[in-house]
Amino acid sequence: MNQPQAQTQLRHGRVTSPASRGSVAIDLGLLAGWQVNEMEGGKNFPALVAGPFPAPYGSDSDSVTPPADGYVLSGGKTDARDCVNFTSTEMSKKLNRPFEWPLLNVTPGQTLKVNWVYTAPHTTRGYRWLITKDGWDPQQRISRAQLEAQPFFEDFYTQVPYYSHAGEMKAKVDHEVKLPANKKGHHVIVLMWIVANTGNAFYQAFDVDFK
Q1: Against a cut of 0.90, is the pTM above it?
Q2: Domains located in the chain, CATH noted
């Protein structure tokens, strides 16, 4: 039974560069690629409840319930994929050895290039980027309280309604974002690939070190 389910879940996508927490979990043998392709949860995050996608894109499919606090980085998944939500201390216990999430060295205000691999691209509304607050606590799992209230960047297709423009609203293999100019040290970035014709987004997380 597991194998057919795995095959159907190969249908989404993940970031392959730079390394996400999901990529690290694959390298550690904790997750398979299809599991990281399906870090799928409600697309209205950081909202708490299901409901219409905000204007002017209200004709998009309603969001299902967004991820709960503590399970944000896995898109709300609480199975084996919960490991991407782990603090370094939790991961050290799981691996029975010292562990720190690897940090990607970045500079404030730089352009970060991201590469995706899709196993079945969906009609895409766009991409939302969030980041941890100054003074966030790495010893606590990522929650809404740990993140800035507003995304630092959104890259959305503007066509509405989506069903009249599905051929144009393609998932992007490569895209870029300008990182915040006022951050220092270790932060976690949450990237959401938001789908127009379902209630979900796909969540990817990165640990960065602003130099």
Answers
A1: yes
A2: 2-210 (2.70.50.50)
